[in-house]
Amino acid sequence: MGRTTYSRDVSNLERDPQEMRCGADAGAASEVLEGREVPLGGPRAMLVSRTLPHVHRRMIGAWCFVDAYGPEQAAMRVPPHPHTGLQTVSWLLAGEVLHRDSLGSVQHIRPGQLNLMTAGRGISHSEESPEAMLHGVQLWVALPGEHRDVDPGFEHHPALPVLSGTGFEATVIMGTLGGVTSPATAYTPLVGAQISVDGDCELPVDPGFEHGVLLLDGEIAELGRGALVYLPPGRTAIRLSGRGRVLLIGGEPFDEQIVMWWNFVGRSHDDIVAYRKEWMEGEGFGVVEGFDGDPLPAPVLPGTPLKPRGRFR
């Protein structure tokens, strides 16, 4: 496979980002959310499959952004850029990435390890890797209103707890699954886990959560490639059969409306305008030391006001 150089991380690097609308609405039946291919980083960019936000469903619990990428031979170079009002979750199946942020954190992440960055009121970061086989997912978790302006923070978890059962082994990335809880900081009731499936299994889940299941590799009878399967609350178990790895995300339905634009999560158009202004003026997000290059400029805001919307259309 040829070499690809691309810019990507837990960030939306589209130069003309669309408003991404999330919030609370009534429940819905099970559905398949097909991913859309998004090129990141220019004409030789790697294509990622983005399943959240989706045209019909914007969130699953507090999870509001899901990109899956690879496996592909690639080099990563993501200049410093800002975040607000969310947590970024970096999870690799193959490769290695170097994270730097405005708190002074410098941390490699490798498969089976978690990098969790809480943006809170504002943080900036960069990510880089040498040319390598890269395969992973990048996710955002929206912070609830009472915590959206918390102090920014960074956590690296080199080892995570595992839940084992007949036909499966689950690494609990965030939240709680089957009584096993991740040490990662979470601000709403949720779950994020990588499930290794070997045969037939019943994965215990919280009936109060809505869930999403994404095939990472292998063959799982219930899942197609590139699609996130949404499951409404009410289940005590998810049945899977085959051999492969899947990503499970879920949580209590998020009961707030939010506005997502570029790399910001806010509650109003004015929030986003203020965040963008601060970033472009070099205020509020600190400085990422050690990156050889300029920060990313923010895109131009759309001509119409950004509005908070429901969780799905």
From TrEMBL:
The keyword Metal-binding applies. InterPro entries: Pirin, Pirin_C_dom, Pirin_N_dom, RmlC-like_jellyroll, RmlC_Cupin_sf. Its cofactor is Fe cation. One of its GO terms (molecular function) is metal ion binding. Keywords: Iron, Metal-binding. Gene3D superfamilies: Jelly Rolls. Binds 1 Fe cation per subunit. Residues 194-282 form the Pirin C-terminal domain. Fe cation binds at H81, H83, H125, E127. Residues 49-141 form the Pirin N-terminal domain. Belongs to the pirin family. This is Pirin.
